[in-house]
Amino acid sequence: xxxxxxxxxxxxxxxxxxxxxxxxxxxxxxxxxxxxxxxxxxxxxxxxxxxxxxxxxxxxxxxxxxxxxxxxxxxxxxxxxxxxxxxxxxxxxxxxxxxxxxxxxxx
Length: 107
What we know:
Blueprint: E1 2-7, H1 12-27, E2 31-36, H2 53-61, E3 66-71, H3 72-77, E4 88-89, H4 91-100, E5 103-106
Parallel strand pairs: 1-2, 1-5, 2-3, 3-4
């Protein structure tokens, strides 16, 4: 299955669970793409000892069946630079994700 996950918020527990689900799906043999939009592009700042989002994101990106994309406009509006774990992308990429995935989840 191709799973698309759209993240648009910064609640640490929610982000942690979204990445945990993404990692579980990868282990089940699925292909997973995460698209960060709005506040979601700030996900890297929400990591904590209790909700270690960075650890989950690092684990996710180890798979060749995993990909993270981030809205370039949302990054720019927050004066953020693209990173390896938050690469700049476009609405066209979000559209393609929605079009190609079997299931789409939003967090």
